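Researcher: Here's the sequence for the chain we discussed earlier.
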Amino acid sequence: MEAYDTLSRSIKAIQTESLENDKIVNLLKATVMDKQTVINIHLDTIASLNKELELMRIETERVDKKLISYLSSSYVIDQIDPQPTDFNNVPPPM
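Model: Thanks. This is the structure I predict for it:
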């Protein structure tokens, strides 16, 4: 009878430990899922910012090319008409 009681206590202890382990595992799974959700949000934010940065680089390149074009046009105009404009001789607005 004593062996049965010892075995019964051991089984109950193992079952209790198993239930506690299941609770801990479920808590850890929930924690991992929460952290994965946060990581996914950060990754989406990074992807969005990278896309925005690339669009800004494209826009900057476009503006730089226009500026170069305008400077080239200005140089050509200066070569055609090299006379500086004297703004002191411009009549005042009406």
